[in-house]
Design goal:
Keywords: Coiled coil, Metal-binding, Nucleus, Zinc, Zinc-finger. InterPro entries: MAT1/Tfb3 (IPR004575), MAT1_CAK-anch (IPR057657), MAT1_centre (IPR015877), Znf_RING (IPR001841), Znf_RING/FYVE/PHD (IPR013083), Znf_RING_CS (IPR017907). Its main location: nucleus. It comes from Lutzomyia longipalpis. The protein has 346 residues and is mostly helical. Among the domains are: 38 residues; 54 residues, no CATH class; 61 residues, no CATH class. Helix content is 55%, strand content 4%. It has ten helices and five strands. Strands 2-1-5 form a three-stranded antiparallel beta sheet. Strands 3-4 form a two-stranded antiparallel ribbon. Strand 3 and strand 4 form a beta hairpin. Helix 3 packs across helix 4. The chain starts with 7 loop residues before the first helix and ends in a 5-residue tail after the last helix.
């Protein structure tokens, strides 16, 4: 048989060849998967794929249908035109690079951004949490209808009616959101400048420490070569000096940032732009009180008395599983005695 004629050299060469074949096969599968993934990115009009044209850029508009950049430039030479799939009138300026693999996700994200610009109420604008939840549910219903082309006309009418009824609140919330974003930018700029200053200070300190160590090392060598004192004493003196300098070294506090990196000054002036934190009126401290049990009968025996007086003899002993769960025979006996003695004085 073939297995009888195999020796060590044949087996070794067979294993090497098999491993090489496996490597080529794995590489082929990886390339095939990559090519299939690139073939998925295709322009629906000219059928150009990412595999054929690696520089292919798919673009999407408000309707959610994709086109490559070349088709967009060709169809929208005048700045406007109709979508080749749904015939919706579109503008060339509204086309953008597709970020998500699914164009429907791209469409929903765009619709959500547009709707949330006007539906910008916060929880503080509602009297109850239920009204706020109904408001959020209405937003999701509108986004779902527009994303899936369901009742487009009535949905747009609802949006226009909402804009007319809540014009002042929409404008107020937009200004509030802009102010909050500006304050957040100021805080981020402060953190950025503080980190930059700290990095510069650490670099300067590191350079100074290196130079200082080099000078101390040279001074120590000169002292050892020229002095007639004991070398151990000289080294100990220099070690004490080094410890003292480390203790005295302190990091200079970073100056607080007052303007952006572009040169524009902050308008908050520190924390002056923020409203003071409201103080909450706290109620009285909680005082623990033990539970008062009303039996209307003689006091039942305690757990220790149940064991010492022999009540436990008439109760089935608990098993190991019951004991592991926290159950004991004393609990059952105590509960039975409480129920028997309760209400005897009524």
């Amino acid at each position: 048989f073939y297995c009888e004629t195999l020796n060590y050299d044949n087996i070794h060469s067979f294993i090497v060849k098999e491993s090489i074949i496996c490597q080529y096969f794995e590489r082929y599968l990886a390339n095939s998967a990559h090519n299939l993934k690139m073939d998925d990115q295709v322009c629906p009009r000219c059928k150009t794929t990412k595999y054929r044209n690696p520089s292919l850029k798919l673009m999407v508009n408000i309707c959610g249908h994709t086109l490559c950049e070349s088709c967009v430039d060709l169809l929208f030479l005048k700045g406007s035109g109709a979508c080749p799939e749904c015939n919706v009138p579109l503008r060339r300026s509204n086309y953008r690079i597709q970020l998500f693999e699914d164009p429907m996700v791209e469409k929903e994200v765009n619709i959500r951004k547009r709707i949330l610009r006007d539906y910008n109420k916060k929880e503080d604008d509602f009297e109850t949490l239920e009204e706020y939840n109904d408001y959020l549910e209405e937003i999701e219903t509108i986004i779902f209808n527009l994303s899936n082309d369901i009742d487009i006309v009535n949905t747009n009418k609802r949006i226009e009616q909402y804009k007319k009824e809540n014009r002042e609140i929409i404008t107020k919330n937009k200004s509030r959101i802009g102010r909050e974003e500006y304050e957040l930018d100021e805080l981020l700029e402060e953190e950025k400048q503080i980190g930059e200053e700290r990095r510069k200070q650490l670099e300067l300190l590191e350079q100074e420490n290196k130079k200082k160590k080099q000078r101390e090392k040279e001074a120590l060598i000169d002292e050892l070569t020229s002095s007639h004192q004991n070398a151990a004493e000289i080294v100990s003196v220099y070690a004490k000096k080094a410890e003292q300098t480390l203790e005295e070294a302190k990091v200079v506090p970073v100056a607080k940032a007052t303007q952006f990196s572009t040169g524009i000054k902050f308008t908050r002036g520190g924390q002056q732009g923020f409203l003071p934190v409201p103080k909450l009126e706290e109620g009285p401290m909680y005082i623990y009180k033990s539970i008062t049990r009303i039996f209307d009968g003689p006091e039942p025996p305690s757990a220790e008395e149940i064991i010492s007086d022999g009540y436990i003899k008439h109760i089935r002993a608990e098993t190991a599983q019951e004991r592991a769960g926290g159950y004991t025979a004393v609990l059952a006996c105590q509960r039975a005695l409480q129920e028997a003695l309760q209400g005897l004085y009524d």
